[in-house]
Design brief:
Structural class: alpha+beta
CATH class of the largest domain: Alpha Beta
CATH architecture of the largest domain: 3-Layer(aba) Sandwich
Radius of gyration: 27 Å
Largest sheet: 6 strands, antiparallel
Helix content: 25-40%
Number of domains: 3
Number of strands: 11
Shape: globular
Number of helices: 13
Strand content: 15-25%
Strand order of the largest sheet: 6-7-8-11-10-9
């Protein structure tokens, strides 16, 4: 019978053993020579089994401890994260930072100009004005299932002005949906990788397409055209009707106005708004210019 208490002497030490150190022990035999010597000195089957059980138990405990530590770093349970979509749609861009936190709970990341709630498949971004007012609320839907996308009760991008003015129905200038404004083949040519296009149209106020790599998680791009929201979107980003003298950005020359915040780029073309959210994209300004040129010809 195997001694079930054989592993207890290892308990004081296992918490201090990192996974990288454990991997080093296994991959570098010379560092594990004392254990090989002990194995060689074992005389009976029962002695070998006790040694094997002790060693295996230490490895399992180290793995469990490392997994628990990684989970504690996010400090967000699935039960909490699953409530975020409904809570997010209760928030309004005109709110203060404290009000949004009261609705969503503590953000997983924050800076003077942004807050985000990211865990599992969920990605929510808030962009702040200097006075702490929320000026933009954005949802990255790339990792959401079709059912989760359909269950969203608010637009994926909301700006402060658009919630404060009377909503007017805007007529689309084209019947071509977003996935037709830039096809999957054209996006593949722009990015140099085979891309798949998924339409996500939910209203006649906007048209949206999500592009993702055919054989990998990244890159991915969300491309949305909102009819008549161009000027409101730029005001929501804190931009006036023209640039300040001497102020330039990598996105100058795209449309009538362009402004970026984090992974999101907003472009005004006439009265309409184009929103692009990049994930894992290299040289986003160059990609944005090619995307805009391709889509503009069909708007």
């Amino acid at each position: 019978m195997i001694d079930q208490l054989a592993w207890r002497p290892f308990l004081p030490e296992f918490k201090s053993i990192s996974m990288s150190r454990l991997a080093m022990w296994i991959s570098v035999p010379s560092l594990f020579d004392p254990c090989w010597d002990e194995i060689c000195s074992l005389k009976t089957h029962s002695q070998f089994m006790r040694f094997f059980v002790r060693s295996l138990t230490v490895i399992i405990l180290c793995i469990a401890f490392g997994s628990a530590h990684a989970a504690s770093e996010t400090n967000v349970s699935r039960a909490v994260a699953s409530k975020w979509p409904d809570q997010w749609c209760q928030a309004e861009p005109k709110m203060k930072r404290e009000q949004l936190i009261a609705i969503m709970g503590p953000p997983t990341d924050t800076s003077p100009t942004t807050m985000s709630w990211s865990a599992y498949q969920y990605r929510f971004y808030a962009f702040l004005a200097p006075d702490g007012t929320i000026k933009q609320l954005d949802i990255n839907t790339y990792s959401l299932s079709d059912a989760e996308k359909a269950a969203l009760k608010c637009k994926t991008a909301r700006t402060k002005p658009s919630t404060e003015i009377k909503q007017v129905a805007h007529t689309a200038h084209t019947t071509v949906p977003a996935c037709g404004l830039i096809t999957a083949e054209e996006m593949s040519g722009i990015l140099g990788k085979r891309m798949v296009a998924t339409p996500e149209d939910r209203s006649d106020q906007e048209t949206k397409c999500t592009y993702h790599a055919a054989t990998a998680m990244t890159p991915s791009i969300e491309f949305t055209v909102s009819w008549g929201d161009g000027r409101a979107g730029m005001r929501g980003m804190g931009m006036a009707e023209s640039h300040e003298p001497g102020l330039t950005t990598p996105y100058d020359g795209i449309g009538d106005q362009a402004a970026s915040a984090g992974p999101m780029l907003m472009i005004r073309t006439g009265e309409d708004l184009i929103t692009i959210v990049f994930t894992g994209v290299n040289d986003a300004p160059a990609v944005a210019k090619q995307m805009f040129t391709t889509a503009k010809a069909r708007l």
